[in-house]
Design goal:
single chain, about 325 residues, alpha+beta, Serine Threonine Protein Phosphatase 5, Tetratricopeptide repeat, Jelly Rolls, eight-stranded antiparallel β-sheet, four-stranded antiparallel β-sheet, 9 helices
Length: about 325
Amino acid sequence: MSNAVGAANLLLQRGDVRAAADVLQRAEQTGDALAARELGIWQLAGQVVQRNLAASRAMFERAAALGDPYSASVRRAFVAGGVGGPPDWARALRLLREDARADPACVEQLRLIEAMDLDASGAPAVEFASEVLSETPEVRRFPTFFTPEECAYLITVARDSLRPSVVVDPTTGRPVPNPIRTSSGTGFPFMDENPAIHALNRRIAAASGTDVKSGEPLQILHYAPGERYHEHNDALPGVPPAQQRVLTFLVYLDDDYDGGETAFPKLGLSVKGRAGDGLLFRNATADGAVDPLAIHAGLPVTRGGKHVASRWIRATPLIVE
């Protein structure tokens, strides 16, 4: 932490936001990369100051130019995904190649991306075959949707940040074990959505016929023996139709386990995908209401460990500039 960031935090504790911002802005102007990064975080989070994604992107750009590696990773994510400004896939790749000289994580991302069949914008240049498992509600399987290398990459980058699934206790406000989902998980919000993960999200968007910005952050879930996801529906009760989670896209990342099927009890359907297979299903009716037929469960794993990638997709884009 730089002296300026420490001083700004002390001023925030005293409730003096203006003075804290002044400290950071003066330090950023003299070339303090961590002060610029802190301003970018403030403008992204919208808790200390009003959220401003364009200003956040500019501050992460500044901090990256001043040599902060974390801000460089955020810059690549924002440029690839079009956060705080237009997407620029060609520039994202240039930044990735430049940063790969010092960052092994960039080397791995490049290796995955260069093996993908993408157009100039980073979108898939191919179509994806699918098998209809149910027409109402729609359930589709996409064989070999992710490659073995992509599956292994997601398992690896998620491993150190997996945490037990929790919910917030309405009485205490504290996180408590999730009574519905007894797994571990982690997510990749758009500041952590590196170009390789963004390309995979673009693939999910193309296969589901949706806007990539309609997807919630990609999640990686791990189920150990005995863990499960009890019957539930991913749609949200009582939300406006434009905000509804209309679709879910799962990708099975491994298959060396027993149990763990994705079951739709009201459809009499149970799916156990092979590593790399995708599963798309619709959660809501045409008017945005929760579809009771789309209730599903992740059955208990009885041997080994199960990893899945999961993306909830809303009816309209989530990121509002």
